[in-house]
């Protein structure tokens, strides 16, 4: 055979290779079809009825938990990694000025304990002198307005941010300070014990130190002590059961999951919007969006037996990195056929772009108040279900 002609054996080998490659590609595509899902074992659904509401509106107070990924990741890495206790990182408000990995709850808070919650400006100025990267903290917090079927309206806070200074300004920007003072906000739900969702608690306590407060039963002793040290005068509701109904059509879902920097457990919120379906709202969704969706599908009863919307951090690419395995999460989200997706925070900008590229119904934002991308709902933006 001439060099420029293919042998019979090479031809057969090439055809075989192509057939195999095509088969693998077909199997990959098949994995995401409804036929593939239909082959999975059928779960026994509980259809637990938690009522229905008319609508849910979310006002994003702040989704910007920190402003510099490199500083955040670098501090954690230098302290010993993702398993290090968050209270030892020497971040405000638990900084003692002794450097990386030498902080502690008691030594850090001692410098400002007498100032919180009434003089937070002075407290934060003191901590800025002691902390690593004191300008980096921001926070996650949103206001949720729920309308019952009879027209009664309720307001709730999900999380309370991190930086006293940033959250004070964010609260004032959205009028949260006045709502708290007027006792218009009926409860505060802390999704989990992480710095960016919980450490700003004194800002809420400054305006209402008796607001009903709900936390996961995985909070460590430092977290429970911080609730007291922040000036809280009530008794927190510590959720132990998988689901707790708050009002008709609204429930708190509890997930037991280990989280980085020695945090355990997260709670998310579920709503059944009449004639529309299920809405899920999360702080970070460390339990994973698929686990949260699977739990809701298995345990809850909701209108039309369909998923309607989702909001919050979905914890896919929080540090704006990308791993091919994340593509599986993006593709798998299609299974639930959400009608409205309001993502931000630890979802990551890259993930939001992937959602948009796949044609998912992402509600975009305005990139105001230091939110850096219009591809998702930024600070001051709203979404209604």
TrEMBL record:
<keyword id="KW-0812">Transmembrane</keyword>
<dbReference type="InterPro" id="IPR036866">
    <property type="entry name" value="RibonucZ/Hydroxyglut_hydro"/>
</dbReference>
<dbReference type="GO" id="GO:0051536">
    <property type="term" value="F:iron-sulfur cluster binding"/>
</dbReference>
<keyword id="KW-0411">Iron-sulfur</keyword>
<dbReference type="InterPro" id="IPR001279">
    <property type="entry name" value="Metallo-B-lactamas"/>
</dbReference>
<protein>
    <submittedName>
        <fullName>Metallo-beta-lactamase family protein</fullName>
    </submittedName>
</protein>
<keyword id="KW-0408">Iron</keyword>
<dbReference type="GO" id="GO:0046872">
    <property type="term" value="F:metal ion binding"/>
</dbReference>
<feature type="transmembrane region" description="Helical">
    <location>
        <begin position="12"/>
        <end position="32"/>
    </location>
</feature>
<keyword id="KW-0479">Metal-binding</keyword>
<dbReference type="InterPro" id="IPR019546">
    <property type="entry name" value="TAT_signal_bac_arc"/>
</dbReference>
<keyword id="KW-1133">Transmembrane helix</keyword>
<comment type="subunit">
    <text>Heterodimer of a large and a small subunit.</text>
</comment>
<dbReference type="InterPro" id="IPR052926">
    <property type="entry name" value="Metallo-beta-lactamase_dom"/>
</dbReference>
<keyword id="KW-0472">Membrane</keyword>
<dbReference type="InterPro" id="IPR006311">
    <property type="entry name" value="TAT_signal"/>
</dbReference>
<dbReference type="InterPro" id="IPR041712">
    <property type="entry name" value="DHPS-like_MBL-fold"/>
</dbReference>
<dbReference type="GO" id="GO:0042597">
    <property type="term" value="C:periplasmic space"/>
</dbReference>
<dbReference type="GO" id="GO:0016740">
    <property type="term" value="F:transferase activity"/>
</dbReference>
<dbReference type="Pfam" id="PF12706">
    <property type="entry name" value="Lactamase_B_2"/>
</dbReference>
<feature type="domain" description="Metallo-beta-lactamase">
    <location>
        <begin position="154"/>
        <end position="220"/>
    </location>
</feature>
């Amino acid at each position: 055979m001439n060099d420029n002609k293919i042998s019979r054996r090479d031809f057969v080998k090439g055809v075989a290779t192509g057939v195999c490659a095509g088969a693998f590609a077909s199997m990959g595509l098949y994995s995401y079809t409804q036929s593939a899902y239909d082959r999975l074992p059928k779960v026994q659904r509980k259809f637990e009825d938690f009522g229905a509401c008319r609508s849910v509106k979310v006002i994003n107070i702040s989704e910007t938990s920190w402003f510099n990924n490199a500083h955040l990741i670098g501090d954690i890495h230098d302290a010993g990694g993702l398993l290090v206790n968050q209270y030892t990182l020497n971040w405000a408000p638990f900084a003692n000025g002794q450097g990386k990995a030498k902080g502690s709850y008691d030594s850090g808070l001692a410098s400002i304990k007498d100032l919180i919650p009434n003089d937070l400006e002075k407290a934060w100025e003191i901590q800025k002198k002691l902390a690593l990267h004191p300008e980096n903290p921001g926070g996650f917090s949103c206001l949720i307005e729920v309308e019952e079927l009879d027209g009664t309206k309720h307001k709730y806070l999900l999380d309370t941010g991190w930086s006293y200074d940033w959250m004070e300004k964010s609260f004032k920007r959205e009028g949260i300070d006045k709502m708290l003072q007027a006792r218009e906000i009926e409860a505060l739900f802390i999704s989990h014990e992480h710095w960016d969702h919980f450490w700003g608690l004194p800002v809420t306590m400054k305006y209402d130190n008796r607001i009903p407060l709900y936390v996961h039963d995985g909070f460590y002793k430092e977290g429970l002590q911080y609730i007291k040290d922040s000036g809280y005068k009530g008794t927190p509701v510590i959720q132990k059961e998988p689901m707790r109904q708050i009002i008709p059509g609204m429930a708190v879902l509890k997930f037991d999951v280990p989280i980085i920097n020695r945090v355990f457990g997260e709670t998310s919120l579920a709503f059944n919007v009449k004639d529309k379906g299920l809405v899920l709202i999360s702080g970070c969704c460390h339990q994973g969006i698929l686990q949260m969706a699977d739990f809701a599908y298995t345990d809850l009863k909701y209108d039309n037996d369909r998923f309607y919307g989702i909001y919050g951090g979905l914890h896919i690419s929080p540090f704006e990195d990308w791993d091919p395995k994340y593509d599986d999460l993006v593709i798998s989200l299609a299974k639930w056929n959400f009608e409205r997706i309001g993502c931000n925070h630890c979802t990551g900008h890259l993930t939001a772009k992937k959602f948009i590229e796949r044609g998912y119904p992402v509600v975009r934002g305005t990139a105001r108040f230091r939110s850096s991308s219009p591809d998702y709902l930024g600070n001051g933006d709203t979404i209604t279900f």
